[in-house]
Amino acid sequence: MVSVQDAGAQFAARLLDLGDGMRVLDAxxxxxxxxxxxxxxxDVDLTALDTDPVRLARVNSNLxxxxxxxxxxxxxxxATEAWWDTRTFDRVLLDAPCTAxxxxxxxPDIKWLRQPGDIRRFAEQQxxxxxxxxxxxxxxxxxxxxxxxxxxxxxxxxxxxxxxxxPDAHILGAMPGRDGLLLPDNEHDGFxxxxxxxx
Length: 199
Ligand SMILES: C[S@@+](CC[C@H](N)C(=O)[O-])C[C@H]1O[C@@H](n2cnc3c(N)ncnc32)[C@H](O)[C@@H]1O
What we know:
Blueprint: H1 11-15, E1 23-26, H2 33-41, E2 45-50, H3 53-66, E3 71-74, H4 80-83, E4 89-95, H5 110-113, H6 118-136, E5 137-147, H7 156-165, E6 169-172, E7 181-182, E8 191-198
Parallel strand pairs: 1-2, 1-4, 2-3, 4-5
Antiparallel strand pairs: 5-8, 6-8, 7-8
The structure holds S-adenosylmethionine.
S-adenosylmethionine binds next to helix 2 and strand 2.
């Protein structure tokens, strides 16, 4: 009947300012914590993508358990030609793959598993996803970029560079933490949030 979710993660669905009837894309959805939260907040037409079929199956089982529904597809969100029907979305959640440096206290093995080249590799993936998903967002629509990392290379640098390259991308204010950066503390994990509007 319930889902347990970190207090920091719970900011995502609310920041998206969802309304009934909106077309919403959850680009990196598995295991579906934020997918379910969005569907609980408004009656939206939601498409959830993930590249990992095993993790995507967990989105399906979580939605079934909660009595919610969405269109699920196993796809690379950046390869839009493979999954997008050209109808734009009102809201896009990009909960990007990242080093997960903000959730090390929950997954201490992260410190041993990460390799020196990982930050650059994730940053490239994040940029590729941002560039591709901007195309599927309708004018006036909002894209929320989220990571559970506290590194600038995956956060402020990605968004700063993106906005510099896209004059139609406007950063909306009033983010949690320090300009969208939540450092891990007694109440929540570490996250970064940036809400962009297509103007
Ligand atoms: C941070 S997790 C998402 C967590 C999820 N939003 C939630 O709240 O439960 C990132 C996800 O992105 C997926 N992923 C990585 N690259 C992707 C891509 N190119 N397209 C779609 N999904 C991708 C991973 O398999 C992983 O499940």
